[in-house]
Write a structure and sequence with these properties.
By secondary structure, the protein is an alpha+beta fold. The chain has helices at residues 16-25, 29-32, 43-59, and strands spanning 63-68, 71-73, 80-82, 85-89.
Length: 93
């Protein structure tokens, strides 16, 4: 939730537990969990996506940076959508 200056950064490799803690560390977690009648979002998919991205980065050392902004999170069970993504690549030494 960059607009609220509510972001989290981690270095790969990232485990499922690490991804869960990462998501829970942001202040906007309350909004993702369903707040004041809004539906709970698909937090499980966010966690799986983060682990998958971590695996991708570990398998491809040419990826030096990865930025997803925005990530659209749908109601529970409906997944997420990456609206924009930027990779910064560098030839491995």
């Amino acid at each position: 939730m960059e607009v609220f200056q509510d972001v989290a950064f981690r270095l790969a490799p990232l485990t499922r537990n690490g991804a869960r803690n990462m998501v829970r560390s942001i202040k906007g977690h309350k909004l993702l969990s369903g707040f004041r009648g809004s539906p709970k979002t698909d937090i499980a998919t966010i966690e799986r996506m983060l682990v998958g991205l971590s695996d991708l980065v570990m398998d491809h050392p040419e990826i030096k940076e990865l930025d997803i902004n925005p990530l659209l999170v749908h109601p529970e069970g409906e997944g997420v959508t990456v609206a924009d993504c930027r990779f910064i690549l560098e030839t491995p030494a």
